[in-house]
Design brief:
Blueprint: H1 3-12, H2 36-46, E1 58-62, H3 68-83, E2 87-93, H4 100-110, H5 122-136, E3 139-145, H6 147-154, H7 157-164, E4 173-180, H8 191-197, E5 200-204, H9 209-223, H10 233-243, H11 248-264, H12 272-292, H13 296-310, H14 318-332, H15 339-351, E6 355-361, E7 367-373, H16 377-385, H17 391-398
Parallel strand pairs: 1-4, 1-5, 2-3, 3-4
Antiparallel strand pairs: 6-7
Helix pairs in contact: 2-3, 4-5, 7-8, 9-10, 10-11, 11-12, 12-16, 13-14, 14-15
Length: about 400
């Protein structure tokens, strides 16, 4: 099949999709099933902005895929329509903008302030933002999504500034919405930041399998041609996602991936087999993404486990892994962490499903922890291969 034929097939003759965009993670529908309580709660917190009064800062907790971002964007969109020019809204994803400078630059751009990609002191960006906001004489609601990623990487300086900025403003006010997947995130915050930021708190519970089915049915009606989904497809996607902490994003990803697979093979229906194939692909991709996002020393410990298994070692212990880790640290000219920290890292890798750490009894010699890889070698190699800083080691992995 030629490129032209492939493109023509998707543009003119899609047997599966009516509007594929409706399954993408950044699409926010007009109706959000099973989140009415959270929508009303957030709307009540933000409503004072319409009367020119600063809303309380609000912190939103919940596991991945529980609707936090969608609900926030939905409420802010409706409030924006009502407020017209009275309120300025800004949304910043702190995983994509993961430094104080980038966050403040994004907020400043919402006010029409041009900030270079680099080159200014962060304090200067703070100053330009505060001056621009006060000139506008408006209420601003700033949403910091995945704010835990920013704070864990670069500290809470931005939050300290934003929660104190109203003391500097005479004509404007700012209200902050923080969104996090980490239920223990506030433990990382300075007590002064925590008291100011968490004036109001909302917790989003995981979706049940039945609730996920309702959401998928709603999206499917908008996204697919009539009759293309086998009856078991949506229940299967919902059941898989329900086992993963009720992750709606995963349910939508599964449905989209399964439909894409059906489309590519020219099938007229999306079947349960397509869902199973999609699940295998997504699980592989999740592992790769997790490994790519790991801190440096966690990657070094993972490489140590990988190389030991590659050398034929069995029944790996923390001591064996630590010795190999020390070799890698020396090779890279890095200061190693302690053996106790390496043991903690092994536990983290175990919780992530990348290694399996099992305590076994040695009889009168006590007990020990036996470690082995549980993720596929291909996923580990793919996750590590792109880390250019550790190129000398990843070349060993690729051999």
């Amino acid at each position: 099949m030629s490129l032209d034929e492939i493109f023509e097939h998707f543009v003119l003759h899609s047997q599966i999709f009516k509007d594929r965009e409706r399954l993408l993670p950044d699409y926010v529908p007009e109706e959000l099933p099973h989140r009415k309580q959270q929508i009303i709660a957030l709307a009540r917190i933000l409503a004072p902005a319409l009367a020119g009064s600063r809303p309380s800062n609000v912190f939103i907790y919940g596991l991945t895929g529980t609707g936090k971002t969608a609900v926030t964007k939905h409420v802010v969109r409706k409030l924006s329509e009502k407020a017209q020019e009275k309120v300025v809204f800004a949304y910043v994803n702190c995983r994509q903008n993961d430094t104080s400078y980038r966050v403040m630059a994004e907020l400043a751009r919402e006010l029409g302030v041009k900030v270079p990609f680099t080159g200014l002191a962060t304090s200067e960006v703070y100053k330009r933002f505060a001056e621009a906001l006060d000139r506008r004489g408006r209420m601003m609601v700033a949403v910091l999504d995945e704010v835990d990623h920013l704070v864990k990487k670069n500290g809470d300086d931005v939050l300290y500034f934003l929660t104190r900025i109203n003391e500097q403003l005479s004509r404007s006010r700012l209200s902050l919405i923080g969104i996090t997947n980490d239920l223990k995130f506030t433990e990382f915050l300075d007590s002064r930041v925590k008291s100011s930021l968490c004036e109001e708190e909302l917790v989003f519970p995981p979706y049940t399998a039945k609730e996920l089915e309702d959401i998928l049915q709603q999206r499917a009606a908008e996204a697919f041609q009539d009759g293309v989904l086998a009856p078991e497809v949506i229940p299967a996607c919902a059941a898989i996602a329900a086992k993963q902490n009720g992750d709606c994003r995963l349910a939508l990803d599964l449905l989209l991936k399964a439909a894409d697979l059906a489309e590519r093979e020219g099938a007229s229906k999306v079947t349960l087999e397509h869902v199973k194939q999609a699940q295998r692909e997504i699980e592989k991709n999740v592992t790769v993404d997790v490994i790519k996002s790991m801190p440096l020393h966690v990657k070094m410990v993972l490489i140590a486990v990988y190389l030991l298994e590659k050398e034929g070692a069995r029944n790996l212990t923390t001591g064996m892994i630590y010795n190999k880790y020390m070799e890698i640290a020396k090779m890279l000219g890095m200061d190693p962490v302690t053996q106790r920290r390496v043991s903690d890292i092994i536990n983290e890798l175990d919780m992530a499903g990348i290694v399996n750490a099992r305590v076994v009894s040695l009889g009168r010699y006590g007990r020990t922890k036996v470690i082995r890889l549980s993720a596929s070698l291909k996923s580990i190699e793919e996750g590590l291969q792109e880390d250019l800083f550790m190129l000398g080691v990843t070349e060993l992995v690729a051999r």
